[in-house]
Inverse folding.
């Protein structure tokens, strides 16, 4: 019985298998590099988001303080206006 064709077939299949395995390992290494780069970008985006939130909170606090000051100023102006109206009405 001639087993040479069977032997050649098995060797050929093994060679193809290892060639595909090598290619898959190369692809996996490339994907790991891309994943690492993506992780760095996600970390940078997260930090940028945190900074944006902090900036936004600071801005909101400044606007709120300015609105409170404006409200107080408006009350004083209104009181002075009513006093002036009282003087003018009394004439």
């Amino acid at each position: 019985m001639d087993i040479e064709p069977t032997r050649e077939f098995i060797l050929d299949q093994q060679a193809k298998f290892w060639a595909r395995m090598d290619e898959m390992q190369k692809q996996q290494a490339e994907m790991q590099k891309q994943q690492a780069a993506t992780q760095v970008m996600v970390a940078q985006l997260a930090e940028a988001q945190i900074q944006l939130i902090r900036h936004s909170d600071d801005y909101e606090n400044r606007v709120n303080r300015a609105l409170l000051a404006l409200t107080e100023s408006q009350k004083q102006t209104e009181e002075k206006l009513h006093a002036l109206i009282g003087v003018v009405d009394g004439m």
